[in-house]
Amino acid sequence: MPCHLITDCLYEVFEYLEEDKATLYSCLLVNTVWCKISVRTLWRNIWSYKYTFFVLKQYDLELSILKTLVSCLPDESKDFLHDNGIFIPSPDRNSPMFNYVEFCQVLSIHEVDMIIYTVSINQNSPITGSSYNEYLITLELFKMFMNKIPSLKELIYTPSQHKMVFDVSKVIFTYFTGATNCLKDLRVFRCNSYVCSEFFYQLSRICHNVQFLDIELGSEISNGLIDFVSVQQNLKYLKLKNYTMDSDWSALIPSLLKHTRTLTKFNLCGEGYLPMSFIASFETLKELVFRCSSDGGKVDSIGDFKVLQYVTFPQLTILKFFYGHPHKVFLMKFLENNGKNLEEFSVIEEDDSLKFIIAKYCPNLKKLFIIFEKDGLKGLKLIFESCQKLESMKFWCSDRYHFLDKDEILEIIVKYSPMNFHELQFYGIKYLNLLPEDLESFFISWQNRVPQKLLSIIILVDCNDKDICLEIEEENLEVIKRYMKMNVVRKLCIKDFDDEEE
User: Fold this and answer.
1) Crossing angle for the helix pair 2-16 and 32-42, nearest 10 degrees?
2) Domain total for the chain?
3) Is the Cβ–Cβ distance between 350 and 327 less than 8 Å?
4) Is 143 in contact with 173 (CB distance < 8 Å)?
5) Rounded to an integer, what distance in angstroms lies between the CA atom of residue 105 and that of residue 153?
C-alpha cells in the first residue's frame, strides 16, 4: 500500500511538471520508479520537447527522438526499411527500455514530418537517398502509431511546407490496423481546411466526440471537412483561423450551426473582413475571443462585428480582443447587452469613454485588460469603485503609450482597488521606470491594507523576448524577493503575452 501511495503521489506531482521538460528529464535519473513515471509524462507530447528543452543541439535532439521511434518499430518494419537501404541505429544496443509510443497522447503530422526532414538534410544523417526514403519512414511510423497508441487524445494534422516529392498529407493512416481504437476517443483535432477529403471522410467514421476543433482556413474547404464537422456530437470549443484573403468558408457554416447547443468557447483569428453573423446562433457561448488585425481604421476593424452588437449571449463570461477591436460604438452597445455577466474582459483600446462604459455595464468583472493613458487614470479609479469583484488588472506599458504616472497609478491601486484584488500584470514594465523606493513604498502601503491579500506580480513578454531579463532591475528584484519572504508578495513570474489565447 505505501508503495502504491508514493507512486500515485508522484503521478500527481509530475502532472504539474508536464511543461517543464528539463525538470522531468532530470527525474529520469533518480531511480526506477521515478524513471517510469516521468517517461510517461515526457512522451505524452514528445513533439513539444524540442521547443522547451535546449540541452542538446536541435539536430541531436530530433535525431534522438527519431532513433527512439525507429527502435520501437516491429521487426517487419525494420526489415522493410533495411531492404530499402535505410539504416537508423537505435539509441543503444539493447531493446528500448519502454514501449515509448504507447505513452503518446498527442500526435503531430507536422512535427513527425519535420523531424524526418531535418535529420535527412544533415550531412551526417543516417537517412540517405531520395525523399522517397523519408516517405517510407513516415509510412512505417504511422503504421506503428495507429497500432501501438491505445487512445490518442490530440491529433495535429497540419503537414509541413518543405518541398517533398511525397506529400505526407496523402498518407491516409486511418486505413491502418488499429486506427479505429487509436482515434475513436480523439478530443482535440487541429487541421488545415485543404487536407484531402478522403482523410476527413475516413476520420468521420471513427471520431464523433471531438471537443476542441482548431481549423486553419485556406482558399479551399474540402467536402470531407464539412462532413467531419457535421458528425461531431459534443463540440465545445471552436477555433477558426483565416489568413487567406480570398477564402470563402460559407459552405462550412451550416455544419458549424449544428453545434449551437454544445459550443461554449469560440475563437476567431484572421485578417481583413471576417463574417460573424452566424456567431449569433451560439447562445450557449461562455467565452468569445477575437484575434484579428486592425483593418486600417475602418468603421468596424474586425470584420462585421456590428451584426453582433445587439445580440445577447446569456452565459458569456469571457470576452477578449487581441490586436484589432470593433468600433467603440459597436463594442459599447455589445457591453450594454452582455456586460453584466462578464468576468473577464480584454481590449487594446485607449478611448476614455470605454472606461466609463465598463464601469457602468460590467460590475462583475474579475479580470480586466485595457489601456490607460496618463489622462485616463480617473477612469481606472472609477472602474475600481464600480467593479468590486475585480481581482486582476493587466497594464500595457510601452514606448507607444506613455500613459502612467507611476506614483499615481500605485497610489490608486492601493487606495481604490477592491478588497479581493491581488494580481498585477505588466506588459513592458521597464517603461514604468520603477525605482526600488517606489516598490518599497507601494509594498508598505499594501501591507497596511485591511484586509490584506498576497500580491501576485506577472511580467508579460513577447515570446521572442524570453531570453531577455525579467525587465526588472536587479535592485527591484531584491525588493520583491524581500517582500515575498515577508508574506506581502505571493509570487513573481514571467509569461508569454500570448499564453492566454487558449
Assistant:
1) 40
2) 1
3) no
4) yes
5) 5
**Please, are residues 12 and 5 in contact by the beta-carbon 8 Å criterion?**
no
Cα gap 296→323, rounded to integer Å:
12
Span 252-299, pLDDT tens digits: 999 999 999 999 999 998 876 677 889 999 999 999 999 876 554 444
- The cell for 465 is 523576448
Q: Please tell me the distance from the alpha carbon of residue 116 to that of residue 246, in angstroms, as a whole number.
A: 33
Q: Return d(Cα 421, Cα 391) in angstroms, integer.
A: 4
Euclidean distance between CA atoms 228 and 225, whole angstroms:
5
- Say how many Å lie between the first and final Cα of the chain, rounded: 39
Classify residue 27: in a domain, yes or no. Answer: yes
What pLDDT does residue 376 have?
Answer: 60
Buried/exposed 233-264: b ≥16 CB within 10 Å, e otherwise: eebbbbbbbbebeebebeebeebbeebeebbb
Sequence-distant contacts of 230-234: CB under 8 A, at least 24 apart = 230/254, 230/255, 230/258, 231/204, 232/207, 232/208, 232/259, 233/208, 233/209, 233/262, 234/209, 234/210, 234/262
Give a yes or no: residue 42 inside a domain: yes
Mean pLDDT computed over 61-72? 87
Confirm whether 31 is domain-assigned.
yes
Cell numbers describing residue 458: 506577472
> What per-residue string of b and e applies to 273-303 under the rule 16 or more CB within 10 Å gives b?
ebebeebeebebbbbbbbbbeebeeeebbbb
pLDDT confidence of residue 467: 44
Calpha distance 148→132 (Å, rounded): 24
Asked whether the whole model's pTM tops 0.85, one would answer: no
In a domain? residue 19: yes
H-type helices in 167-290, by residue range? Answer: 179-183, 197-206, 223-231, 253-256
Measured distance CA(283)–CA(344) in Å, rounded = 18
Domain of 39 in residue numbering reads as 1-49
Alpha-carbon span 411 to 408, nearest angstrom: 5
Cell numbers linked to 145: 502509431
Distance CA 175, CA 207 (A): 14
DSSP string of 281-316, one letter each residue = G-TT-SEEEEEE---TT-SSSSSSGGGGTT---TT-
